[in-house]
Amino acid sequence: MRLVGKIIFVGILVLLVAGLTVWSGLALWFRLPMEETARMIAAGGVGLLGLTTLAAQFGKRPTRSLAMFAFAMALIFIWWESIEPPADGNWAPDVARQVTGEIDGDILTLNDVRDFEWRSEDDKTQNWVQRSYDLTTLEGVDLFLSHWDGPEIAHFIVSFGFQDGRYLAWSVEVRREVDGGFSPLADFFKANTLVLVAAEERDVVGVRSNIRGEDVQLYRLNTSPLVARTLLEEYVRDANLLAATPQFYNSVTTNCTTTVFRMVRAIGVNIPLDWRLLLNGYLPDFAYDQGALDTRVPMEQLRALSHIDERAQEVGLTSGYSQAIRVGVPTPAR
């Protein structure tokens, strides 16, 4: 039994050292403020230290090497925790501003709502506007999923509809810098910050359906106006907090899906853990199972009717965009 226990202990130790070595190497490679050669040497040094520590566990002096490894990890963690998200930067135009809002009674006023006119990725007219909404006229919530590379992963946009026909879309995005990009691996290591964008649908949805040619799907959620209002108010609170205290985007823990579901839980809606929260391209199936979509219609039919790209291309990025893309999409009895 002692031998079995020792084997299990060493196995766990090996996995822990290997995991910390990989994480530390990547952290140094992506975030160490040095030239590429220096970052490569630092990451390689951590890898060599990890391999030496692993080899020593099967030698005569495993404790000494383990202590050196633990000391090195402690230094890296102290450095890692000292990295703060920047408040200012040379941000790309479409994520240059963080929306903020104020609620006075039933009136919501938002500053820096995005209303860009897109002609191509590089040709656009930038408009940041102020918008006011009467929360007593809020009708419901819709969900957009924009697939850019296969069915498993999608970008997640939540839109609130009002009785006057207006829609207010919210998108959790990577606040990249000019000429910067999106990398799921790099964004696991504090590469970019988070930004909450509030926008007109013909902007934040239209750029994906009409300009980038992504597969955009629309699902109308089965929510009451009260739940919709509570969720919208939570978005406003999060936006104001983010404007005051920047936060890093994280590909796994703080992304377009996890941020929204954290807000949904914050307003008291219970959401069970499910693998489809990670592979968010399958979120409609999860929502259907939870009764959040129109279950009077089979899921396969909902999915077939959800694709908006053809209707979006026909109407163009005009004032009638929001109404046109909803033609034929089933609406739950909210």
Q: What's the quick description here?
A:
By secondary structure, this protein is α+β, with helices and mostly antiparallel strands. It has helices at 2-31, 36-56, 62-81, 201-204, 206-211, 225-244, 256-266, 283-289, 299-306, 309-315, 321-325; strands spanning 100-104, 107-114, 117-118, 124-125, 128-134, 138-147, 155-162, 167-175, 193-199, 215-220.
Characterise this structure:
The chain has 334 residues and is of the alpha+beta class. Helices cover 42% and strands 19% of the residues. The strands form 3 sheets. Strands 9-8-7-6-10 form a 5-stranded antiparallel sheet. The protein has a 3-stranded antiparallel sheet with strand order 1-2-5. Strands 3-4 form a two-stranded antiparallel ribbon. A hairpin with a 5-residue loop joins strand 3 (117-118) and strand 4 (124-125). The model has no long low-confidence stretch (mean pLDDT 88).
The portion of residues forming beta strands comes to 15-25%
- Shape category: elongated
| Topology order in helix (H) and strand (E) letters | HHHEEEEEEEEEHHEHHHHHH
Largest beta-sheet details: 5 strands, antiparallel
Structural class category: alpha+beta
Number of strands: 10
Radius of gyration, Cα only, in angstroms?
A: 24 Å
Give the termini separation.
Answer: 61 Å
Estimate the helix proportion, in percent. 40-55%
Can you give the mean pLDDT? 88
Q: Within the largest sheet, what's the order of strands?
A: 9-8-7-6-10
Task: Please report the number of helical segments.
Answer: 11
